[in-house]
Write a structure and sequence with these properties.
The protein is of the alpha/beta class and 326 residues long. It has 7 helices and 13 strands. Strands 8-7-6-9-10-13-12 form a 7-stranded mixed beta sheet, sandwiched between helices. A 4-stranded antiparallel beta sheet has the order 2-3-4-11. Strands 1-5 form a two-stranded antiparallel sheet. It is globular, with a radius of gyration of 19 Å. The N and C termini lie far apart (57 Å).
Length: 326
Amino acid sequence: MQQPSNADYVRGGTQKDKYTASEVMYWPCPLCGSEDEKFIKTERDVLRIVSCAKCSLVRVNPRLENPEEVYTGKVDIYREEFRMVLNGRAPHHRDWNYLRDIELIRKLKPKGNWLDVGTNVGSFLRLARGQSWNLQGVEPSEKLANLAREWWGFEIVNNFLEKANLPSRHFDIVTLTDVFEHVVNPQEMLQSVRRILKPDGVVFLKVPNGKFNWMKFKARGMFGRPSDNDYDAYEHVCHYTHDTLAKMMETCGFSAKHIFVETHVQVPAWHKVTGHYYQHETPWVLDWKTQSARTFCYHAAKIESLMRFGKVGYLAPNIGCIASPK
């Protein structure tokens, strides 16, 4: 079977292979406000990845003006991507990750009011149904919010968290899973989280590891296989490390109780054969090299973290964080 070209890759969102100067904007460091920076690389023609010279937070500068609009694609494509999950014929490709995170949350807060920020179509929150939580979501995309309501029956506020007008000190749990790296105003968002969270509430975050992205970039260059997507710069505007994530939480009035190596995500590879992404799992034989590498890095990262006295290093693809208000 002839593999589809990149131009034939059907996506649920509106991401593009290349961007122009008219589509981007410059912004200061969202952690410390500095404009001094160190250049790392450029992706998709104009998206520069830089490290703040003052606090070391890595960000995309310039970035897309409205990166959240990447997720305003055609609903029919999302339906096609999810069809196997919806009819129960296959698990979502992140279910393994979601179930582990839900079990961790259960140990911290087995019941109460749970708000999921950036719910998307409800893939994560759907696995927490039927238990002792009152589930609610916030999703800025109207199309995705409507799908979450239609498919799983969730109460979804269609807005950005900062504009959602949710009650103060109401939630026991707030989750931001694969969301915080997309946020252009992280301090404003965390201040909103702190307002709506109960004094004894918990925040659970999961983000890609900025050090791992840097390692990928360097390794690919070393072996003569450069990529235009090491940092997913079209959608991921901030790239946190153990230290910069802890500093962001502290700056916004949270205490990071536990920062840890998160489970690795086996991203589907259907598009290599079919030209369509699909949200259900890819058979191991179709992508065995990448899946084996991700599994190895995850287990090696656990060892690396032990050797670094609990700090997440370069080998962890993702970072998890549990925090509470100070």
